[in-house]
Design a protein that fits this description.
Blueprint (H helix, E strand, L loop, with lengths): L12 E8 L9 E8 L26 E7 L15 E7 L5 E8 L12 E7 L15
This protein binds calcium ion (2 copies).
The site of one calcium ion (CA) has 7 residues, from loops.
Length: 139
């Protein structure tokens, strides 16, 4: 993060890291972590920050997502320019992809109360294994 204004930035603010499906910060994005600053930052002063973030297990996967690095995430600091506070970095989110690939029934017609034997095949067409060992399929 860098202070490109003319005055010292002080008074405390926090930066955030968000996961987004687009490069813009909005209410749909998920905050992954944040960092509070209480030290002053002189003009052209900067600091490096490192943290660990976890992609939520319920996050929709597939396609390009973005990590959004947001200075002064809750706009506590009055700045010369409020439009340059977000840096978006693209990130591919991969996951499993269950697909029903084959299905058949022992009869093509049946009446109520009658038993029919059915078979089906589920394939993981995704790029990573499922994170859980159990789920329910239904016919
Ligand atoms: Ca967004
Ligand atoms: Ca700014």
């Amino acid at each position: 993060m860098r202070n490109t204004g003319l005055l010292d930035a002080s008074g405390g603010w926090s930066d955030g890291v968000y996961l987004s499906e687009d490069p813009l910060l909005d209410a749909a994005d998920t905050q992954l972590n944040w960092l509070y600053h209480s030290a002053s930052l002189t003009p052209e002063g900067s600091y490096d920050a490192a943290m660990r973030v976890t992609v939520p297990s319920w996050q929709r996967v597939g396609g390009t997502h973005y990590l959004l690095f947001v200075a002064d995430r809750d706009a506590r600091l009055a700045e010369m320019d409020e439009t340059n506070n977000v840096r978006a970095v693209p990130m591919e989110l991969s996951g499993p992809d269950l697909a029903a690939t084959e299905a058949s029934a022992s009869a093509s017609s049946a009446s109520p109360g009658e038993n029919v034997r059915v078979r089906f095949t589920i394939v993981n067409r995704g790029t990573v294994a499922t994170k859980t060992n159990y789920w329910w399929d239904a016919v």
